[in-house]
């Protein structure tokens, strides 16, 4: 007898009727171990029905992610179908869930209610809650030394615990400084390479028609993401080597002071018309320079807009960038058969250089912290001068985004906002340091970076 299994995928904007947000906690622990995942995943949107044998048929593997753009879901649909056709032991169905729902309620609720997918994805913003809860299966048995050596040195930092690897890094979004070539040339200004040059250029370029410089002044993940490199390029870190708070270190205070000086100067865009992660602030003529991500490198005309690494603290000093991105993980809450199937699929899918290259250069655009992918995608990664800057200069300086809990991220975010608007950089850092230490001591939390 046959049963119908839905291989579901959603187009952007589709919504679910969800339960209220549920935090991961002790209730997850070992809940659901060995529980068989339901064969049918129901969702509004486009659903493809496939026939799968009953008890004697393939083992159903459920894969959740947040890739809801049309090209992304088309890519996943193509390769999931190819995998299912290539063997008869496992059958994979995937569900692409809009980002906000996925990261705030859908995934957490699934784990808390024993309905977790067999394969799921996490960004640094949410990964710690799943690693801390102990619901992830180690992947060291499928990540060989050859594969590990193909990734950059820091690639597995955010997905490792106690010497074990729990995730496969898929993509990396980097940040750099974009600028309007014509405006800088008209003012006889070279793209800034130091903090002092950045301040000077912002002052000279600022007019009634456009801001000299735009960076994120609103509290949130994007602000933290773009702040970290200014600490790292000084050789500093927000946490010590043993994972404890280092928020009132000289390097953190210096970075806060730079941002405060830029904002107080009046030469920057304090009220951008949209999110600063949107490059149209630059291309629509709202600013002369803007911190933005590698996702914009193919969206701007490289004849009109250039890219340079983030300015270093001092002349001849190091620059830095941050690499954010998604990681594929396997739930250990499934049966042994399902865990084996999940590993088989992600090995076939996401350890394959050709698959990852196509995903990162055609289905979407991002960099990968895997050398062979950068080489295989050279036609795209070297396709224009801005892409070359990201490939040859920015990527090599990138460190993985710090994986913080929600509470820890709030402390860092508040520190930046306090320094920008409420008090001195040193006062903001000291208050944040005390708050972070209290939080860490109460929760036994340790963070890298």
UniProtKB/TrEMBL annotation:
Pfam families xrefs: SBP_bac_1
Lineage: superkingdom: Bacteria
Signal peptide feature range: 1-20
GO cellular component, one term: ATP-binding cassette (ABC) transporter complex, substrate-binding subunit-containing
GO terms (BP aspect): maltodextrin transmembrane transport; maltose transport
InterPro entries: SBP (IPR006059)
Keywords carried by this UniProt record: Signal, Transport
One MF annotation (Gene Ontology) recorded for this entry: maltose binding
PANTHER family in the cross-refs: MALTOSE-BINDING PERIPLASMIC PROTEIN (PTHR30061), MALTOSE_MALTODEXTRIN-BINDING PERIPLASMIC PROTEIN (PTHR30061:SF50)
Family that this chain belongs to: Belongs to the bacterial solute-binding protein 1 family.
Name of this chain's protein: ABC transporter substrate-binding protein
Organism: Gallintestinimicrobium propionicum
């Amino acid at each position: 007898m046959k049963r119908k299994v839905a291989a579901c995928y959603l187009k952007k904007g589709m919504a679910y009727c969800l339960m209220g947000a549920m935090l991961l906690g002790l209730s997850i622990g070992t809940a659901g171990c060995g529980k068989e995942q339901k064969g049918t995943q129901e969702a509004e949107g486009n659903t493809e029905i496939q026939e799968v044998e009953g008890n004697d048929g393939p083992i159903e593997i459920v894969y959740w992610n947040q890739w809801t753009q049309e090209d992304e879901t088309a890519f996943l649909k193509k390769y999931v179908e190819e995998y299912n056709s290539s063997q008869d032991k496992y059958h994979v169905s995937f569900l692409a869930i809009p980002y906000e729902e996925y990261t705030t309620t859908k995934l957490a609720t699934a784990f808390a209610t024993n309905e977790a997918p067999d394969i799921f994805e996490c960004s640094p913003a949410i990964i710690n809650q799943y690693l801390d809860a102990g619901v992830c299966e180690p992947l060291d048995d499928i990540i060989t030394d050859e594969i590990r050596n193909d990734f950059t040195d820091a690639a597995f930092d955010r997905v490792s615990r106690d010497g074990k690897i729990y995730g496969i890094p898929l993509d990396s979004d980097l940040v750099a400084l974009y600028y309007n070539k014509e405006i800088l040339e008209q003012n006889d200004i070279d793209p800034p390479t130091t903090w002092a040059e950045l301040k000077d250029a912002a002052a000279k370029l600022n007019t009634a028609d456009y801001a000299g410089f735009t960076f994120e002044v609103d509290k949130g993940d994007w602000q933290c993401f773009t702040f970290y490199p200014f600490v790292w390029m000084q050789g500093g870190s927000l946490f010590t080597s043993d994972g404890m708070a280092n928020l009132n270190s000289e390097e953190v205070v210096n970075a806060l002071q730079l941002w405060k000086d830029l904002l107080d100067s009046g030469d920057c865009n304090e009220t951008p018309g949209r999110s600063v992660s949107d490059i149209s602030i630059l291309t629509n003529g709202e600013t002369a320079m803007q911190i933005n991500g590698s996702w914009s490198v193919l969206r701007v005309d490289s004849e009109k807009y250039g890219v340079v690494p983030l300015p270093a603290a001092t002349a001849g000093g190091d620059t830095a960038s941050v690499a954010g991105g998604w990681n594929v993980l396997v739930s250990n809450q499934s049966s042994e058969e399902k865990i084996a199937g999940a590993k088989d699929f992600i090995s076939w899918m996401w350890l394959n250089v050709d698959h990852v290259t196509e995903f990162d250069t055609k289905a979407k655009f991002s960099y990968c912290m895997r050398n062979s992918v950068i080489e295989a995608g050279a036609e795209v990664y070297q396709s224009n001068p801005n892409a070359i800057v990201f490939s040859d200069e920015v990527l090599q300086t990138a460190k993985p985004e710090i994986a913080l809990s929600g509470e820890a991220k709030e402390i860092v975010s508040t520190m930046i906002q306090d320094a920008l608007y409420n008090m001195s950089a040193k006062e903001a850092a000291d208050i944040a340091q005390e708050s972070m230490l209290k939080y860490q001591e109460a929760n036994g939390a340790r963070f890298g970076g």
